[in-house]
Amino acid sequence: MVILITGGAGFLGSHLTDKLIKEGHEIVCFDNLVTGNILNVSHLSDNGKYRFVKHDVTEYLFLHEKLDWILHFASPASPVDYAVLPIQTLKVGALGTHKTLGLALNKNSKFLLASTSEVYGDPLVNPQNEEYLGNVDPIGPRGVYDEAKRFGEALTMAYHRVHGLDTRIARIFNTYGPKMRALDGRVVPALINQALKNQPMTIFGNGMQTRSFCYISDMTDGLYRLMMSSTNKPVNLGNPHEMTILELARFIVELTGSKSETTFKELPVNDPRVRQPDISRAKKELSWEPTVQLNEGLMKTIEYFERKLSEGE
Ligand code: NAD
Prior knowledge:
By secondary structure, this protein is α/β, with parallel strands linked by helices. The chain folds into two domains: 2-175 and 213-237, Rossmann fold (3-Layer(aba) Sandwich), CATH 3.40.50; 178-210 and 241-275 and 292-310, UDP-galactose 4-epimerase, domain 1, CATH 3.90.25.10. The chain contains nine helices and 13 strands. The strands form four sheets. Strands 3-2-1-4-5-6-11 form a seven-stranded parallel beta sheet, sandwiched between helices. A two-stranded parallel sheet has the order 7-10. α1 (11-22) links the parallel β1 (2-6) and β2 (26-31). The relative contact order is 0.14.
C-alpha cells in the first residue's frame, strides 16, 4: 500500500513508519519539523520505498501518487510544545485535519486520525472508556491541544458520515520509548534524564497523580491493527497498568541506580489527576493488548538516553 503519514518525523510517526516499511508498504512523509527531527528518519534516506517532504500540512496539500491511506499524526504533542506553539497546535488540529481529510477524499484513501486521551481532559471517571465524554477546560492552557483533537475527531466523523470516508480514530494514551526528546516536557524522558545525570527529579504536585505508560512497539502494533480493522469508532490504545508519578520516579531510580532525590513543583493548571485507558474495545475489535512490561520498556528507553548522553547530547 502507499501511505502518507503526516508528522512522520516525530516520535510516534517515525516508529510507525519503520513498522509500515517492514510490513512492505511505501511511505510518503509530510512534516514541517516544528517538533520532529529529521534524524528520526535519516536511516530511510536511501530507501526507495520512502520519501520525505518538508511541508506544513495546514497549507495546500498536493501529491501525484495514488494513496491507500493517510495517517494524520502531525501536531505538537507535549504540554511544553503546545504551550510554546498554541496557535500552530490549533491550526494543525483544525486546518491540518481538514486538508488531510480533503486529500483522502480526493485520493479515495482511508484515513486515520492520531487523537489522544487528552480528549477526556481531567477525567471524572477512571478508567476512561470511549463512551466517556470528557472534562475539558476549553480556555485553559491545555485547551489548545485538547480542543484541537476534539475538533479533529468531530471533523473526521463528519467526513465519515457525509462522504462515506473510511476513517479510524486512535485515542492514544501516554506512550514512551527511544527517540523521544530529553527536554520535551513529558514525564518519562524528563525523569530518566534527571536520574542519569544524578540531578533532582522534578515531581509536579504531590506526585500522587496517576498515568499509564505504553511502550512504543505495543503502540505501533495497536495502530497497525486499527488500520487493518473495520471499526470507525474511536478506539483507546494504551497500557492499562496505572501508577503514580512518584512510583514511576522510584522505579526509574531503581533501574538507573541513580543518586537523585525528588524535588516538588506546583502542579500545572488542568493537569489530569488520573489517567487509565479502558481497552476493552481494542481487545475485542483488534485482539490487541500491550505485552511489553514497564521494566523492559523503561530499560530500553534508559539505554537510548544513556547512549545520547555519551554522545554529548
Ligand atoms: P512529536 O512532536 O514527536 O511528533 C509530531 C510531529 O508532527 C513532529 O514531527 C512535528 O514536526 C510534526 N508537525 C507538527 N505540526 C505540523 C504541521 N503543521 N505540518 C507538518 N508537520 C507538523 O509528537 P508524537 O509524540 O510523535 O505525537 C504524534 C501524534 O500522536 C500527535 O498527533 C499526538 O497528538 C499524538 N499522540 C501522541 C501521544 C504520545 O504519548 N506520544 C499520546 C497521544 C497522542
